[in-house]
Amino acid sequence: ISGDCLKYSNRHYCDAKALLQLYKPLFRDNSINFAEKFKRSYMKQYIITIIFALCLASCSQHSKHWETLTQVEAFMEERPDSALAILQGIEVGDLSGKEEKAKHALLLSMALDKNVIDKTDFEILQPAIDHYEDNGTPTDKLRTLFYQGRIYQNQGSNAEAMDCFLNALDKGEDSEDLLTKARILYTQGLI
Questions:
Q1: Which residue of 44, 53, 106, 173 is surrounded by the most CB atoms within 10 Å?
Q2: Measured distance CA(87)–CA(126) in Å, rounded
Q3: Nearest to 17 by CA among 1, 29, 31, 28
Q4: Which helix (H) or strand (E) holds 11?
Q5: Three-state DSSP state, 30
Q6: At what angle do helices 178-190 and 158-171 cross, to 10 degrees?
């Protein structure tokens, strides 16, 4: 260690110039000095961290409507008319991602059915059908297939409705939504 270092209590304290001289042999490329290499590696690490943080944030974010959808789901049984009004006020274009669009589609289909607004096409429920076929919880699958069956029933296609109801009970076997399971069994009895 050069003379630019001070000795204090068996430890050496060096100025920056002495440290640079000490670590300079570690780098083979003498055209770029230690300080420049340190800055470059620090900047690379900083940029990678920023990119990772942005990716992480964008992957897990829901839109401002996610909390509203969760609240609507909680009071759907008690106040289906209020649920319908809130869901119809949400623009589908404002929703982010397939999961959020599927949840909105399922809840809107539920609210329409509970308000005795019988749909005969799958336009509203289709995002839920597409998403929950391979994703979602057993309850999501159970409800989606039940309301798909209800649409078939409204069309007068009882065989397709029955297939949906049977499929719903199968895929939703692990669901704790006993009310929807009871509705399926009741509806099957009417066919």
A1: 106
A2: 16
A3: 1
A4: strand 11-14
A5: coil
A6: 150
**Residue 96: pLDDT band with limits 50, 70, 90:** confident
Average pLDDT over residues 72-93: 94
Instruction: Dihedral sign for Cα 126, 151, 117, 69, please.
Output: negative
Alpha carbon of residue 131 to chain centroid: 12
Is residue 46 within 8 A of residue 35, CB to CB? The reply is no
Separation of alpha carbons 37 and 83, rounded Å: 60
Ordered alpha helix ranges (H), 14-137? 16-23, 34-60, 66-75, 80-88, 97-114, 126-132
Cα three-residue angle 107-110-111, rounded to 5 degrees = 85
Flag whether pLDDT at 75 surpasses 70. Answer: yes
Task: Give me the mean pLDDT over the 165-189 stretch.
Answer: 96
Cα separation, 115 vs 110, whole angstroms: 9
How far apart are the C-alpha atoms of 66 and 57, rounded to whole Å?
15
Q: For residue 139, give the nearest of 94, 102, 114 by alpha carbon.
A: 102
User: Band of the pLDDT at 79, cuts 50, 70, 90?
Assistant: very high
